[in-house]
Design goal:
The complex is a heterodimer. Chain A has 13 helices and four strands. Chain A is mainly alpha-helical. Chain A has one domain: Orthogonal Bundle (MetI-like fold), CATH 1.10.3720.10. In chain A, β3 and β4 form a beta hairpin. In chain A, α8 crosses α9. Chain A is globular and about 70 Å long. By secondary structure, chain B is of the alpha+beta class. Chain B has two domains: 235 residues, Rossmann fold (3-Layer(aba) Sandwich); 123 residues, Beta Barrel (OB fold (Dihydrolipoamide Acetyltransferase, E2P)), CATH 2.40.50.140. Chain B is built from nine helices and 20 strands. In chain B, the strands form four sheets. Chain B has a six-stranded mixed sheet, with helices on both faces. In chain B, strands 13-12-11-14-19-20 form a six-stranded antiparallel sheet. In chain B, α2 packs parallel to α4. The chains are: A mainly alpha, B alpha+beta. Chains A and B meet through α8 and α9 of A and β6 of B.
Amino acid sequence: METTSTLEKTLRLIALTLVVIFFMFPIFWIFLMSFQTNETILTIPPSIIFTPTLSNYAALITGKLTTAAGTLDIAFMRNLGNSIFLSVTSVALALVLGVPAAYAFARHKFKGSEDIAFTLLSFRFAPPLLVLLPLTQYFQWLGLSDTYFGLIWVYQLICLPLILWIVRGYFEDISADVEYAYRIAGHSWFATFRKIALPLAGPGIAAAGLLAFIFAWNNFVFALVLASADKQPVTVGALAFVTSSGIQYGQIASAIVLSVTPTLALALYAQRYLVEGLSLGAVKG
Amino acid sequence: MSETALFIKGVDKFYGPIDHGVHAVKQLNMDVKKGEIIALLGSSGCGKTSTLRMVAGFEAVSRGTIAMKGREVQTFAPVKRNVAMAFEGYSLYPPLTVRENIAFALKASKLSQSVVDEKVANIAKLLEIEDIMGRYPSSISGGQQQRASLGRALIRDADLHLLDEPMGQLEPQLRALLRGRIKHFIKERGLTAILVTHDQTEANALADRIAVMEGGVLQQFDTPQMIKERPANLFTGTFVGEPPMNVFSAGISGSGDTVSFGLNDGVKLDYKASDFSHEVRAELMKRSKVVLGIRPYAVRRSEGGVGAKVAVNQWLGDQTHIATDFAGGTMVLVEHDRTNLAIGENVGIRLDPSSLHVFDGESGRAISHGQELA
């Protein structure tokens, strides 16, 4: 690293600070909003001096929303639970299916393998609305609409191609000879997959899993159409805050804070692991 | 010790569909005896590594059979063949230290820890890697990784050791040192080894027999001495030997007691019919075109010889390489003394019939290797 002058350091610091402020401000503002009542939020001009209240969080957690028009039941905690359940299960299933498939695509080229891999990727090109209407029909016939099973299945459209393509790249980066060296030392191909390929592709699998989790978590339209209230995730559940007596900004803000927390925590936790893993993965056989 | 360790019969390798893909190995037949060291020698893409990988079980055999200890193994998984391999790309396990990498090869053998430790220590000493045993593959040089990879292969008590360019990344001094040690190690333990190399010095120094390959075809499979002295065809003749054999195409004419070769630029080489055996003479007379080959160290300068003009004169510290313009081509001579020939100087060249190789003009197949061995 070349030595940088104090001026350059200062300029860099300012630039970075601006970028951080730009990106962090909305989150910061929502965080503040979540501790305010609708009245203080809607004050003009807005002020950052207010008396914090936990009423928004209390309303979400108890599920009772008091508005001018009366008390409403909101299923936010259930939505949050649904989000966690749907995302975790979908990613887990996609990993179980996608990682071995990615390995197969990386290691065994057969006639049409590229076509199959590309077809799977193309699921990500298509706008979800394109498949949604026919899917709704099929799901009704099959009795899959408004079931967790059906939703997790549809979520594979989001998770599986992502995991397949990212992990495949990681497997391709591992020299096949490292695996051969293990196999020739007296191990089966399955042992080689478990003991050599999986650990070496570990960071890639973690990254793909994290990304798939975020995409699954953020999904809105599948759950909106295919699930009823008791199975909907937070993304859809947030609609409940648009009430007949106005939009409940305070509750929306606290709902956002609660719903980004799991993803954020996961990303922060995985980041440490990813960096550690990537420095190991940088070694090519 | 004539037990066959490896038997390859009629093996073809296609990349892509059989008969339509890239034909990497063509109708290969080979046998390796127990305790032998074999070198597969050839340039890049000649099929030597494909052959090795088919023996290891990493590449499917398109056609033909590979047998080890009397059993056909071409359909066996690598794990069932009991072979050890050192990879050209080293292929060490990144999360393990050099010591762990080498010891790991013994894991399946269920030896006691003290035996493993002793074996690992021996290998480390043999390959001069004692100082890096605790390091990770990412933190050591290519040459060190290569030795670690070689150690991982040699430590195993396998039926066959396959070494793919095992010393390509080493410095010349170390390479020369390790060649001797590795050969001793293999011979002492009665191991059977096949090494793939494009370095003929390595092949000559290590191998009992060399398999010269080109274009997927086994050109010759013989001892280093026979390959040098009796190359089966023009390819082997020119591929093995440094500097390479001088070759000139020639027409043949003969009458009664003379045999004459007509080279380009009207150069004519006359020999007595008795310089060639009866059989060779008969073979020569059937042809109108041949290729003459002569090794640079067998070319002599002589007063009354055929005229040639010095183009390059290089003293290499222990020998002189002289390139001359001769018969429309280049004739290289190697002499052991320093010469003071000037560029452009005319010299006379004599080609002894006893060191003259004659190849068929079309197929390149050898017809004669000179009198001393005929």
